[in-house]
Amino acid sequence: xxxxxxxxxxxxxxxxxxxxxxxxxxxxxxxxxxxxxxxxxxxxxxxxxxxxxxxxxxxxxxxxxxxxxxxxxxxxxxxxxxxxxxxxxxxxxxxxxxxxxxxxxxxxxxxxxxxxxxxxxxxxxxxxxxxxxxxxxxxxxxxxxxxxxxxxxxxxxxxxxxxxxxxxxxxxxxxxxxx
Length: 179
What we know:
This protein is mainly alpha-helical. The protein has a single domain (about 1-135), classed as Glutaredoxin, CATH 3.40.30.10. The chain is built from 8 helices and 2 strands, in the order αααααααββα. The protein has helices at about 1-5, 20-35, 50-65, 70-80, 90-100, 105-115, 120-130, 160-165, and strands at about 140-145, 150-155. Helix 3 (about 50-65) packs across helix 7. The protein is globular, with a radius of gyration of 17 Å. One of its GO terms (cellular component) is peroxisome.
């Protein structure tokens, strides 16, 4: 994320006066609205560097793509739902990797993460996001079945994502607030 902020010269949200308080209220509101597990307290040490974890997740996507969603779900749960700030550190996420991928796969991903060339995966993803218009997170690049693509920023734009993808809003009453 830091790389994306640097590319588009966007200050981190925590650096903008009053923005942290607003973001904190919003994260709790949207979590409740969509019934997403979320710790009431901000994880200790927030904001923390996520570069090491981002690299590992890029490598999981390359090496074991079928495990990526489970890893993202687990890392979200550890950090945001449980408030486990050590989960963002190599010491913290290596055990989680082993639990989710198995020890051999986890060791492979962690070994690849130490190779300087592996960082190119994260750099390429950052450049791709920037090239599609991203300036922060969450950023969603969505593609309709006909091939039309559009980018969306922020949780409060999920209603537009649903409309763009022609999804059924009636499946969740929470979308009613996203007019």
